[in-house]
Design goal:
Layout (H helix, E strand, L loop, with lengths): L4 H16 L8 H11 L6 E6 L3 E7 L6 E7 L26 H17 L6 E7 L7 H7 L10 E8 L7 E2 L3 E4 L1 E10 L3 E2 L10 H10 L14 E10 L6 E2 L2 E10 L2 H21 L3 E10 L2 E3 L1 H13 L4 E2 L19 E8 L18 H17 L1
Parallel strand pairs: 3-4, 3-5, 5-16, 6-15
Antiparallel strand pairs: 1-2, 2-4, 6-16, 7-14, 8-12, 8-13, 9-11, 10-12
Helix pairs in contact: 1-3, 3-8, 5-6, 7-8
Amino acid sequence: MTLTNRDIVELIAWRRKLHQNPEISNEEEETAKEVVDFLADTGPHKVLTGLGGHGVAAIYESGKAGPTVMFRSELDALPIYELSGVDHASLVPGKSHMCGHDGHTAILAALGRQLGREKPARGRVVLMFQPAEETGNGAAGVVADPRFGEIAPDFAFSLHNLPGVPFGEVRLKTGVVNCASRGMRIVLEGKTAHSSMPETGVSPMMAISQLMPALPALGSGTFADDNFSMLTVTHAAMGEAVFGIAPGHAEVWATLRTRRDERMANLCAAAESLVTQIASQHGLSTWWDYQEIFVASVNAPDAVEHLRRALDEEGVVHGEEALPMRASEDFGLFGHSASSAMFFLGAGERHPALHNPDYDFPDDLIPIGSKIFMRAARNLLG
């Protein structure tokens, strides 16, 4: 159940290769090929590719009846220019693995090596390398893929590294661990005019100035409350970048966030009503759409207990501090059809934060993450 020193050296080298060649959401074609090639000699019973985009599922069968246990990692990087200064820094300008998905992928590859040496005694293990987590459409694409029925799991587990938590410690709890969220793009349409005669047009200026504070004011409750909701304006633009035209078009982008999925519908309805009211007040037409939709990640009690047992048996310190988090994670969608749980693996109290340009995944987390997953697999499947 343990990795050899050679395994660890090779996994670190491979993780750094992935780090140097990042591909952002929905573009992970070469990363997916790397995964398939790296796992080839571990002898999976079957490998599905192109799941929900560029997803890869490696299946390790026992040949005996039992549950299907899925472990999931992410393939995608971020559109961030890396400033870490490490020797294996991104070779692709403006793109980098600033969330550690390269490390999570290496952890799953480590699990594949161990399963290649000793298949599960019953049931089967699915290693799911998921695309497009950062945009929220990756898990949705995988679940919607007709072939997902071939691997529909009974249990689903995942992890995410977490700077700010002592290195190698785990944070895990039952219930909500990540918020539901979605991006709302609001478009306001009026009529342009010459800037010397603005009264002949219909400007969105007053409407956009009202929306900027009114949208965040829709939030309610404290984060400790299940009824918590939050709305953050992330972008606003109006008119053309010229002096001669009074504007006739504007956009406001906002992120809506709730602890519970049920609360999201109410927040959307309130935002839509507000936009309609303000647009009408100023003689504007309006429309909106939703993007980057994440459901809440809710850890099932039985899945959490399996992880806690694995942590205790491996001597990994764990607690519930720092959970739940406001940030979103599309792993939650797998919990709609499986008993699922995600844990958070400490990257160090002073480690650069996720999505920061100086972040790099700590390689020493690879054997820690993989041994937790392996112990959980063995406990469930013998």
